[in-house]
Write a structure and sequence with these properties.
53% of the residues lie in helices and 6% in strands. It is built from 18 helices and seven strands. Helix 2 packs across helix 6, helix 6 crosses helix 7 and helix 10 runs antiparallel to helix 11. This is YeeE/YedE family protein.
Length: 410
């Protein structure tokens, strides 16, 4: 398992971890201030191509962070699945970006830089922050009028790798080269429009540009760990959990969890579509085992009180899907004990269990012959928890998320 990101809450406790957040926030604000980002004239000048410091600092920070993050993930030091990425709502994001850009031009600040300016008692920064609070208040009072649009065009954790359907390495190289070209264009604008002497920037920037390009190609060369690589790093510990049957949850405990208002149970049926159509537990979502990895981003955005319950006909396929999700750091993943066959044998009437059993059925296949494709219309698909008195050992323990639950600029 990758050592980073650290689980600060687990290491330091809830409130002490806020000291770290405070130090990082103060350091971020200090860097913005000494870079001149508390000056609205300096910030607004970029829109007139006279002073491009904002573009160079922001884009420079983006590519340095990108290279370090994916370099660290390539070396197995960092788990990218635990890095928070804002989910994409395409059209609301575009409209929101245009509104923020318009406010940036006329006000000279973005939300973060306005706080830096206000912290140093600049009047324009204070007025901008008051405007931000007014905008937040008006948004909160009116969002109900356009809530459908606000939640429209949801694309989840959508990145450039998803957009261009390619790996991390090529994207890192292309973005770094694009940034270097943008820096060259920005300096030309500063020279000919802003009348700034480029000699003041120093020649060290050429070495820095060459260094970041070299590091980008290093990221391309070392690649990113596959699911199998990630599993290999944790296999010893996690296989012990399988051998001790810590991950297999009795159907009675699942029924109990489904009745708990503090817990959200997501049942994932990884069998074939044919078996799913013949019988499935009510509200179980069908995701074939070979597609389970593509849902990792969606699963990691679920609240911390979500429990994922995987099920196949017996346990074999669901256990393999469990290995895939655990390797991708999805928290609170378990497997239905005995699979769907065990669920049917417990919650169906005895006559059906006796008469419909398939003798000598193959491993991880349905052990019962249903008269037709019932889906969730069988009584066993939605058992009444008050009818059954089942004895079981409770095993589900909610684990804290290692990564941040939210984030983003401003």
């Amino acid at each position: 398992m990758a050592p980073f990101p650290l689980n600060l809450t687990e290491l330091l406790g809830h409130w002490p971890s806020y000291i770290v957040y405070l130090v990082i926030g103060f350091a971020f604000g200090y860097v913005l201030e000494i870079a001149g980002f508390g000056n609205s004239s300096k910030l607004a000048a970029q829109f007139y191509f006279k002073e491009m410091t904002v573009l160079k600092v922001m884009f420079g920070a983006i590519i340095v962070a990108m290279v370090l993050i994916f370099g660290a993930t390539g070396l197995g030091l960092l788990d990218y699945n635990l890095i928070y990425v804002n989910p994409t709502y395409l059209w609301p994001g575009i409209i929101g970006g245009l509104i923020m850009g318009f406010g940036f031009i006329i006000g000279g600040f973005c939300p973060g830089t306005s706080l830096v300016s206000a912290a140093t008692a600049k009047l324009d920064g204070i007025m901008f922050v008051l405007g931000v609070f007014l905008g937040i208040f008006l948004f909160g009072e009116t969002v109900g009028l356009y809530e459908d649009f606000w939640y429209s065009s949801y694309m989840g954790r959508f990145t450039l790798m998803d957009l261009f359907n390619t790996g991390v390495g090529p994207i890192v190289v292309v973005v770094v080269i694009a940034a270097i070209l943008a820096f060259l264009g920005a300096e030309m604008a500063e020279k000919y429009i802003g009348k700034m002497p480029l000699a003041q920037f120093g020649r060290w920037r050429y070495s820095a540009a060459a260094g970041i390009i070299v590091l980008a190609f290093v990221v391309l060369f070392i690649g990113q760990p596959t699911n199998a690589d990630k599993w290999a790093r944790m296999a010893d510990e996690q296989e012990t959990r399988i051998e001790n049957r810590e991950i297999y949850i009795h159907p009675g405990e699942i029924l109990h969890l489904m009745e708990d208002p503090k817990i959200t149970v997501k049942m994932i049926d990884v069998r074939s579509e044919t078996d799913y159509n013949i019988f499935h537990v009510l509200d179980a979502k069908h995701i074939p085992a070979d597609q389970i990895q593509s849902y990792v981003g969606e699963f990691n955005l679920e609240p911390a009180n979500t429990v994922f319950m995987l099920m196949s006909n017996d346990e074999e396929t669901a256990t393999e899907a469990w290995r895939t999700l655990i390797a991708e750091s999805v928290p609170n993943v378990y497997v239905l004990e005995g699979g769907v066959n065990n669920w049917v044998s417990i919650f169906s009437d005895k006559e059906f269990v006796t008469s419909a059993q398939v003798p000598d059925h193959a491993a991880d296949t349905l052990a019962f012959a249903f008269p037709s494709a019932l889906g969730s219309r069988s009584p066993a698909a939605d058992p009444n928890p008050d009818v059954y008195e089942l004895e079981y050992e409770s095993k589900v323990v909610l684990e804290l998320k290692r990564g941040p639950a939210s984030g983003g600029c401003g």
